[in-house]
Amino acid sequence: MGSKMVFMALVVATAIRFANCNLEGEVLYEWKTKLMDPFKVLASWDPTLVNPCRWFHVTCNGENSIVRVDLGNAGLSGPLIPQLGHLTNMQYFMVFGNEINGTIPKELGNWKELVGLGLQKNLLSGPIPASLGQLKSLRFMTLNSNKLTGTIPVEVLELVLWGDLQTLNVSDNHFKGRVHPADPTGYAVTTITQDPKIKSV
């Protein structure tokens, strides 16, 4: 009886793992449908393959959950979609050097395990979401060379001052004025990457 219960528990755990895997695959495929991919770098992102961990440019952990997406300099264009926030185990999201446009979804603040966010050299516009200040594990965030506007949220600046964020590059955007009326650093947007605690990349 005991061995049967253990077997059933393993079956249920496996089913849950694959259900989560399927959901994450659906999210990435939904994003793919919104992108222009002239070089077919996403050709392996096939929804008929149940496990997205078999797709190119995707890395998973031992639980078959997506932890990394590497699409730097891939020739992609199109938006980031809010559904990406469902990839809650994401650790590295690297899509620099493309023509990704639109705004940065606030839902990326759900990536509590995120260590690196590379969105530089794209066509992103609008403000930096304050929700990115929830990413307490973040060590580097490169948003330079986009078309971002507004001010840098104080929540993000606090990651530099009191969190693990070691690299924050927001240069070559369209920020205006001071970072925030309550900006604890006192730095203007144009000089924020000169803070000795912030390294430009």
Automatic annotation (TrEMBL):
A UniProt-annotated Pfam family: LRRNT_2
SUPFAM superfamilies registered for this protein in UniProt: L domain-like (SSF52058)
Top-level taxon of origin: Eukaryota
Leucine-rich repeat-containing N-terminal plant-type domain segment(s): 22-61
Leader sequence segment: 1-21
Record's keyword terms, sorted: Leucine-rich repeat, Repeat, Signal
PANTHER family attached to this UniProt entry: SOMATIC EMBRYOGENESIS RECEPTOR KINASE 1
Protein name: Leucine-rich repeat-containing N-terminal plant-type domain-containing protein
